[in-house]
Design goal:
The protein is of the alpha/beta class and about 160 residues long. It contains four helices and seven strands; from the N terminus they run βββαββαβααβ. A hairpin with a 5-residue loop joins strand 1 and strand 2. The structure holds zinc ion. Zinc ion binds next to loops.
Length: about 160
């Protein structure tokens, strides 16, 4: 991605978890370099199990917004919006926000051609707050929400009709 070569833009990619079929669930962190600390989150909090442990830490008052898409595999227009959004974020050299982005939550569902469900046959968007042993994707998002002080969460969906 172009932003990785731009010294004004902070861009980091990490694999946050594996799906039930062993595919990667990716997390991107995109921001300006402003407020970036030398210490990684895990070192700062002394917690190697912290979700997002490889992402850099920014000063405490830097705002964090999370974007995600494709919890419902049959909504590919969410990926189109995500693609353009990532291109736009990669051009914001003075962004006061750190964007945490999960481009595709339900990777197994997308690869298998499911319309709404994951590999385990569950609608992941209905599993938040429930026992999620069969839904590592939901656990990932839940941990991310718990370990970061977010000012906003945008989960992209797309329907042609209700
Ligand atoms: Zn949806």
């Amino acid at each position: 991605m172009q932003a990785k070569e731009d010294p004004e833009i902070y861009f980091e990619h990490e694999v946050m978890a594996q799906t039930m079929e062993g595919r990667n669930i990716n997390l991107l962190s995109i921001s300006s370099q402003e407020g970036r600390l030398d210490t990684k989150e895990a070192e700062l909090l002394n917690d190697s199990n912290l979700t997002g442990s490889n992402t850099s830490c920014f000063r405490k008052n830097k705002m964090i917004v999370m974007f995600s898409a494709r919890v419902h595999p049959g909504e590919p227009n969410g990926s189109l919006i995500m693609q353009q959004m990532l291109l736009d974020l990669a051009r914001q050299e003075d962004s006061p926000i750190n964007y945490l982005v999960i481009p595709m939550i339900n990777v197994d569902g997308v690869v298998n051609g499911n319309f709404r469900t994951s590999f385990s046959g569950r609608d992941l968007n209905r599993m938040y707050g429930k026992k999620a042993a069969l839904c590592p994707e939901v656990q990932l998002v839940t941990d991310l929400l718990a370990s970061h002080k977010l000012i906003g969460v945008v989960d992209l969906h797309g329907h042609s009709a209700k």
